[in-house]
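Training component of the fellowship. As part of building independent skills, the fellow (R.M.) carried out the full modelling exercise for a liganded target. The chosen ligand was xylulose-1,5-bisphosphate. The inputs are recorded below so that the supervisory panel can assess the work.
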Amino acid sequence: MTIEALIFDVDGTLADTEEVHRQAFNAAFLEHGLWWNWGGHLYVDLLAVAGGKERIAHFVDTLDADAAEKARLKAMIPDLHRTKTAIYTQLVAAGRAPLRPGVERLVREARAAGMKLAIASTTTPVNVESLVSATLGDDALGWFAVIAAGDQVQAKKPAPDIYQLALDALGLPGSACVAFEDSQKGVSAAKSAGLCVVATPTFWSAGEDFSDADLVLPGLGDRDAPLDAVSAARVGSQQLGLEALRRLCDGAARLARSN
Ligand code: XBP
Ligand code: MG
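Fellow's submitted model of the complex:
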């Protein structure tokens, strides 16, 4: 398999951002006079719903309130989410969401090898821009040939739409690309779009089913955070590199053809 592009999910994959999102949601609720507070356990459940606006609407549906009150609360969502996004980007700009181990190394390796880079995320585009700028520098936004994010598609993950949008913009088939994801719904979206998928679960997604992924790792590994012994044995190195990716995805393609 010739890998033409690496396509990265953002939240949980480039960086472990969901705690920052959770804090931004709670701060926005307070700012709008809502005494809602999403604790960690509740947020793990709410993350089953992709998209911050959709997540708030789902939460409203769970409230013990009449239809008129739910309609009133849902009418607040656009303003609520704008406030949340403003708070989130401030927290990210302040360095609250560092890249996960191995992400910068692999991005730089792929660039040096002439591969294309893209992003396929459910989060709001300005969140992607703030995270990439804060962690890789302002020039790094130009490293990504395509940034497919948020409401650019109607159907969010696990629908494949955001990956298909990225593939169409890249002019590449899914079979020539590798996706990196942290959640079951993200793995499903990328597999449905025909990509080879590496999953790197976080605390927030640890309990999910990753059996559809072509490879599951605790992280991508780097000098300061090498892979554990079992993962390193599977990858053949202390960190996931382009050669291991090629072997992995060749194997995945052969398996897919034999089924
Ligand atoms: C994860 C999501 C996003 C974030 C919140 O996106 O589902 O909704 O949790 O961001 P990814 P917004 O596909 O990158 O894992 O409030 O901007 O939606
Ligand atoms: Mg994610």
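The panel noted the following from the submitted structure. The CA atoms of residues 5 and 177 lie 5 Å apart. Residues 9-12, 18, 21, 50-52, 85, 121-124, 127, 157, 183, 186 surround xylulose-1,5-bisphosphate (ligand 1) (CB under 6 Å).
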